[in-house]
Amino acid sequence: MVPHLGDGDWRSIAEQTSNEMDPAKLMILVEKLCRALEGEHEKKSPLGATSTGNEPRSFTGDQA
């Protein structure tokens, strides 16, 4: 089930993502989860977001 746009808590999005079986819906949830986590990062960062959003993402944990 794809969440409504108002559902912003990343934890609930992550839970929905872990249960989704439909690949198309899963992609939507993953994108929404990334945006929600970026928003959390911006809130917690003392300087705010320095990313333009165009940088490639690393999902392996490598920060080069």
Q: What does it look like?
A:
This protein is mainly alpha-helical and 64 residues long. It has a domain at 22-46. It is 50% helix and 0% strand. It has helices spanning 10-19, 23-44. The relative contact order is 0.13.
Properties at a glance:
2 helices, 64 residues, disordered N terminus, single chain, mainly alpha
Short description:
The chain has helices at 10-19, 23-44.
Evaluate the radius of gyration. 13 Å
Structural class: mainly alpha
How many helical elements? 2
The span between the termini is 35 Å
Q: Could you list the spans in which at least 5 consecutive residues all have pLDDT below 50?
A: 1-7
Oligomer, anyone? single chain
Average predicted local confidence, pLDDT: 76
Helix content: 40-55%
Which band does the percent of strand residues land in? under 5%
3D shape: globular
Total strand segments: 0
Largest sheet: none
Please trace the helix and strand order, writing H or E for each element: HH
Q: Helices, strands, pairings?
A:
Elements: H1 10-19, H2 23-44
Helix pairs in contact: 1-2
